[in-house]
Specification:
By secondary structure, this protein is α/β, with parallel strands linked by helices. The chain has 2 helices and 8 strands. Strand 7 and strand 8 form a beta hairpin.
Amino acid sequence: MIAGLMANIAVTGEKEATAWYSRLFEREPDGKPMAGLAQWLFDEKFGIQIWEDPQRAGCSNVVIDVDDLDKMAEHLRVAGIDHDEPSPGGGQRILPITDPDGNQVVFFGE
């Protein structure tokens, strides 16, 4: 039985990606368990990792449920992260963004 999930996003450079994702998540990573890897934990068994893998960078996609999509859009504006406004998608509203490597992060919620 599945007891947790750690999504992995392949990036070109861990240092640059850590800075961008730290702005996105409004905090530094919770850990760097090995060279080329940084991770943010949102619960004891749920999180997102960035992994330095230039050959696969730009091919990742992660979908994140948020409590307040409009608040997330405002955070992105303040953080200087480009995005369109939330729009309908999949029975909810979605807010897709793209990291500097071309990976897609999609926020969804009410």
